[in-house]
């Protein structure tokens, strides 16, 4: 006879297996990179080896061009990539700095190879944005450089969405995470409750269905924000408004980190009118926000003889912590109480 003590591990295992088997109600943030390999005269080159290398992690993927000279890398994480093309009888071509944003179909167009030896390499550094040819999405994007260079009052990423054309925002919040969440902006003339916000593909909206984003993420942990304003694909359902994709940062092949401290107080603030009228002291206004980020390769143990003990550049980590301490004053309230 099985006792409760013996059944407990079995029940836990069944619950874990059941939870893993349930379909996840998340939307993807990955994109795809396509192109066509040609020779100098414009003829297509089938059978060429195309390698996609992440400039952040060094991870590489390879495909072979089809009979039409086309290649396609599907389910690619947002980031900066190097595309290398190799084929016998032609010089190796390496194209650096191809930027793929969230939910993007990046078309590199025709990649022309020059006649020569494979050992000879031609390196092309991408410059300027690539014209979107694969879809009719009306999109906008905030990069990590824009996010780090522009300061916001409450360090809330939604405050930076006002930089996008056709967006109307409320006033900046005092601090991220106050109340039930931050109001989503009105995009392209639609109500804020019509927009859908996701963080790394997971729904970040307030469960009641109002126009708030309740899953908070600190501003220094955001890698990019991609907004699909209109004409996006049918896979992004759930609402008729804009789709706001917030993508967090990730670790790379080098250790990198930062620390910060932001301070706001009442030292230079004027005393409120009603506080002066009541003869009260200037109220406290304290916003102390500190945090740090750290990311890099995660060494993994390697078993077997004749090999290093630790396996590097196969797994990566990114850790971010922000601790706000806020005191926001309100106007004094006077109440008349009856006496006996």
Account of the protein in words:
This protein has three domains: 31-125, Sandwich (Immunoglobulin-like), CATH 2.60.40; 138-248, Ferric Hydroxamate Uptake Protein, Chain A, domain 1, CATH 2.170.130; 256-327, no CATH class. The relative contact order is 0.12. With 340 residues, the chain is mainly β. The protein is built from three helices and 22 strands.
Defining key terms:
mainly beta, 37% strand, elongated, Ferric Hydroxamate Uptake Protein, Chain A, domain 1, 340 residues, 9% helix, 3 domains, five-stranded mixed sheet
Overall CATH architecture of the largest domain: Beta Complex
Q: Spans with pLDDT under 50 lasting ≥5 residues?
A: 18-25
The mean pLDDT is: 83
Task: Trace the largest sheet across and list its strands.
Answer: 3-2-5-6-8
Separate helix tally: 3
Task: Explain the layout of strands and helices.
Elements lengths: L3 H18 L9 E8 L10 E6 L5 E5 L5 E7 L2 E8 L5 E9 L4 E8 L8 E5 L12 E5 L1 H6 L17 E2 L13 E2 L2 E2 L8 E4 L2 E2 L8 E2 L8 E9 L12 E6 L7 E9 L8 H5 L8 E12 L2 E2 L8 E2 L4 E12 L13
Parallel strand pairs: 1-7, 6-8, 13-17
Antiparallel strand pairs: 1-4, 2-3, 2-5, 5-6, 9-16, 10-12, 11-15, 13-14, 16-17, 18-19, 19-22, 20-21
Summarize the structure.
With 340 residues, the chain is mainly beta. The protein has helices at 4-21, 144-149, 273-277; strands at residues 31-38, 49-54, 60-64, 70-76, 79-86, 92-100, 105-112, 121-125, 138-142, 167-168, 182-183, 186-187, 196-199, 202-203, 212-213, 222-230, 243-248, 256-264, 286-297, 300-301, 310-311, 316-327.
């Amino acid at each position: 006879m099985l006792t409760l003590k013996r059944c407990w591990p079995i029940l836990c295992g069944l619950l874990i297996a059941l939870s893993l088997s349930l379909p996840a109600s998340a939307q993807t943030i990955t994109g795809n990179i396509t192109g066509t390999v040609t020779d100098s005269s414009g003829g297509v080159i089938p059978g060429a080896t195309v390698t996609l290398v992440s400039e952040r992690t060094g991870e590489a993927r390879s495909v072979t061009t089809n009979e039409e000279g086309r290649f396609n890398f599907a389910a690619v994480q947002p980031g900066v990539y190097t595309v290398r093309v190799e084929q016998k009888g032609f010089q190796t071509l390496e194209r650096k700095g191809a930027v793929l944003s969230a939910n993007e179909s990046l078309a590199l167009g025709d990649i022309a190879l020059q006649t020569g030896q494979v050992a000879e390499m031609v390196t092309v550094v991408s410059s300027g944005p690539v014209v979107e040819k694969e879809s009719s999405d009306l999109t906008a994007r905030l990069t990590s450089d824009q996010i780090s260079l522009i300061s916001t009052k409450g360090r809330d990423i939604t405050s930076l969405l006002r930089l996008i054309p056709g967006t109307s925002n409320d006033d900046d919040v005092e601090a991220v995470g106050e109340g039930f969440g931050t109001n989503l902006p009105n995009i392209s003339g639609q109500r804020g409750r019509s927009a859908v916000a996701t963080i790394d593909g997971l729904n970040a909206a307030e469960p009641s269905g109002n126009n708030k984003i309740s899953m908070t993420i600190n501003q220094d942990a955001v890698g990019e924000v991609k907004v699909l304003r209109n004409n996006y694909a049918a896979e992004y359902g759930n609402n008729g408004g804009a789709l706001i994709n917030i993508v967090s940062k990730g670790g790379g092949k080098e250790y990198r980190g930062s620390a910060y401290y932001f301070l706001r107080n009442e030292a230079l603030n004027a005393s409120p009118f009603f506080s002066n009228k009541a003869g009260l002291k200037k109220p406290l206004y304290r916003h102390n926000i500190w945090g740090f980020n750290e990311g890099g390769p995660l060494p993994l143990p390697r078993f077997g003889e004749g090999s290093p003990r630790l396996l590097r550049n196969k797994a990566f980590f990114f850790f971010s912590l922000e601790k706000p301490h806020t005191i926001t004053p309100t106007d004094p309230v006077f109440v008349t109480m009856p006496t006996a």
